[in-house]
Amino acid sequence: MPELGTISAHPRGDDAALPEVPADEHVGITVIMPAFNEAPNLAQVVPRTAEVLATVRDDFEILVVDDGSTDGTAEIMAELGRHHQHLRLLRLRRNYGKSTALQAGFDRARGEVVVLMDADGQDQPEEIIKLLDGLEGGLDLATGRRVQRNDRVVKRHTSRIYNRVTSKVTGIEGEDFNSGLKAMKREVMNPLVLYGELHRYIPVLAQWNGFRVGEIDVEHAPRLHGRSKFGRARFWRGFLDLLTVKFITTYTGRPFHLFGGLGIAFGGIGGALLTWMFVLKLLGQGIGDRPALMIGVLFVVVGVQLMTLGLLAELIVHFRRDPDVFVEGDR
Ligand SMILES: Nc1nc2c(ncn2[C@@H]2O[C@H](COP(=O)(O)OP(=O)(O)O)[C@@H](O)[C@H]2O)c(=O)[nH]1
Ligand SMILES: [Mg+2]
């Protein structure tokens, strides 16, 4: 996991308009808004969101995670803070990426319900109500399904492929895994560990942790100002992270089943080839130039490597058990 130690938990002196936050107090709802250079958007989105939340309950907070923005986000937030008492600003020292920013938000969110929402104006604050209704209706995580996507054509297509592949690989039903708008109960957030591009797979990880996950149709608007930060490079990294997710959700508890299995397969084939070569040698044939000899040796070495890797992984799992993750109730 990337280092989070350098995150400033409280606004620095120049954000004096924002009050210090008592971390042990709980509130009804926390909206976490990751923002990377979204100053003009925040100026519109934050007040709108506060307005909507105020219709549901008084005790909420909007936690903007400024991920190393260089566009005057802090100043805008300080200004907003003068008019909105529910505002919190978490400033990261540099740009860590959306997953790490969300994780930093998780670590400080005080809400019984945690809402994730993009800061660029694409997610509509009014839709939060629908998601909250979803939670009332029994879901643990309600994730927005953008019915009419307002993104560029390329993005819409890559996104469709990505959603199909994710659903196939993970075996989890869903049409819009990476929507920025989500609401979850606090328990769903607690075991999540986000880094890299894992924020794309929150529904997968939550479902795997045993929570009820559902998609709810939401409106999606064009970006208010600026451009999308998610280009091609991040898209590909997202696919690598799909492998990570697949691995985490399938083999975390039993890595030796993967590595050991592969190791036995390689070792077995290699061993068979070497036995064959040994027999030929005994029969008096020269085997020095036989490809099977090389392949046999290679496979045996690879097999041993995989087995030891699997045992190491098993050791790590063994010592990292967190018993509270599995427990739903205990009385
Ligand atoms: N904290 C943080 N937020 C980011 C980063 N990149 C994008 N975001 C935020 O994530 C949200 C969605 O990003 P956006 O560029 O609109 O992606 P798109 O909607 O998928 O095109 C916006 O609120 C961005 O400010 C980042 O590196 N760090
Ligand atoms: Mg966007």
Helix proportion of residues, in percent?
Answer: 40-55%
Strand percentage lies at: 5-15%
- With strands numbered from the N-terminus, the spatial order across the biggest sheet is 3-2-1-4-6-5-7
Bound molecules: guanosine-5'-diphosphate, magnesium ion
Order of helix and strand elements from N to C terminus: EHEHEHEHEHEHHEHHH
Total of helices: 10
- The radius of gyration over CA amounts to 25 Å
**Total DSSP E strands:** 7
Mean pLDDT: 89
Q: Report the uncertain regions.
A: 1-16
- Shape call: elongated
How far is the first residue's CA from the last residue's CA?
Answer: 34 Å
The helix-and-strand class reads alpha/beta
Largest sheet: 7 strands, mixed
How would you summarize the topology of this molecule?
Layout: E1 27-35, H1 39-56, E2 60-67, H2 73-83, E3 87-92, H3 98-108, E4 111-116, H4 127-136, E5 141-146, H5 153-170, E6 182-185, H6 186-189, H7 202-208, E7 213-218, H8 232-251, H9 255-282, H10 291-319
Parallel strand pairs: 1-2, 1-4, 2-3, 5-7
Antiparallel strand pairs: 4-6, 5-6
The chain binds guanosine-5'-diphosphate (GDP) and magnesium ion (MG).
Pick out its properties.
alpha/beta, seven-stranded mixed beta sheet, 10 helices, disordered N terminus, binds guanosine-5'-diphosphate, binds magnesium ion
